[in-house]
Amino acid sequence: xxxxxxxxxxxxxxxxxxxxxxxxxxxxxxxxxxxxxxxxxxxxxxxxxxxxxxxxxxxxxxxxxxxxxxxxxxxxxxxxxxxxxxxxxxxxxxxxxxxxxxxxxxxxxxxxxxxxxxxxxxxxxxxxxxxxxxxxxxxxxxxxxxxxxxxxxxxxxxxxxxxxxxxxxxxxxxxxxxxxxxxxxxxxxxxxxxxxxxxxxxxxxxxxxxxxxxxxxxxxxxxxxxxxxxxxxxxxxxxxxxxxxxxxxxxxxxxxxxxxxxxxxxxxxxxxxxxxxxxxxxxxxxxxxxxxxxxxxxxxxxxxxxxxxxx
Length: 311
Ligand code: ACO
Description:
68% of the residues lie in helices and 2% in strands. By secondary structure, it is mainly α. Helix 6 runs antiparallel to helix 10 (220-238). The termini are far apart. The site of acetyl coenzyme *A has 24 residues, from helix 2, helix 6 and helix 9.
C-alpha cells in the first residue's frame, strides 16, 4: 500500500500534476511545505510592520490610502497562507506559537528599519519586486492550495511594486533633497533585497529536494540574477545608482555581474540579531495579546450558537 502510494505520488510529480490535501504524500514533502508556507505567512504578517510605521505620516491622502490598502493586502496574504498551511494538518495556533516564541523564521528583509518616506517607495519597488520574482514561480508549485493562493497574492504584489516605483518617480522629479532621500533609501535596501532570495544554491540545504518535488521551480541564485537583470534598467529610468561598483553587463553570460553579498550579516539577521528583530517580534506578540478579547468573544458566540442549536 505505501509503496503503491509513493509510486502514485512520484508519477503525479513527474507528470507535473497537482498534489491536493486529501492525497497521500511523503512526510518530508508535507514537512517542507509546512515549513515554507508558514515562514511565508509569517513574513507577510511581520511585513506589515515596517510600512504600518508610515501610515500616520504619509505625505498626502492619496499616498495614505494606497499605503493602507497595501498593508491590508499583506495581512490578507498572511491569513491566506496560514489557511493553505492548515490544509497540511498543522494548526494556526501551532504556527503562531512558533512565530511568537522566536522559533519560526520569517523573511530577513523585515528586520531593517524604514527611516524616511522614500523607504516606502523603495520597499514597494525593490522588496515587493524581489517578492514577486520569487513568488511567480510558486504559482506553479506542485501543492495545489499553495499554488492557487499565490495567483491572487502575485496580482496584489504587482500593484505594490508599481505603487512604490511610481512614488519614487514622483520624488525623483522633485527637489535635490527628495532625490537624495531616494538614493539613500536605495543604498540601504539594495543589498538586503539581493540576500532575500536566500543563500547561494551551493549553501541552500532545501533547494535540491524542493526542486525535485516541484515546490521550488527556479533556484535562489537564478531568481537573484533575474531580479538584478530586471532592476538595472528600472534604476536607469528612475535616475538612481545601484550601490555596487562591480555591477556591470557581462556580454558573454548575457547577464549582469554583481558584487559580494554580506552573508554573515544576513545570517546574523535571520538568527535574530538584525537591527529590528526584537522590536518586530515584540510588536507582533503585543498585537496578538491585545486581540485576545476578540478571539474570546468569537468563541463565546460560537458556543452560544451551539447550545441554542441543541435546545
Ligand atoms: N530570510 C529568512 N530566512 C531565510 C531567507 C530569508 N530571506 N532565505 C532563506 N532562509 C532560510 C530558509 O528558511 C531555511 O531555513 P530553515 O531550514 O530553518 O527553514 C534556510 O535559510 C536555508 O535556506 P534554503 O535551503 O534556501 O531554504 P528554502 O528552500 O526554503 O528557500 C526561500 C528559501 C527562497 C525564501 C523559500 O522558502 C521561498 O521561496 N519561500 C516562499 C516565499 C517567501 O517566504 N517570501 C517571503 C518574503 S516575501 C514577502 O513576504 C513580501
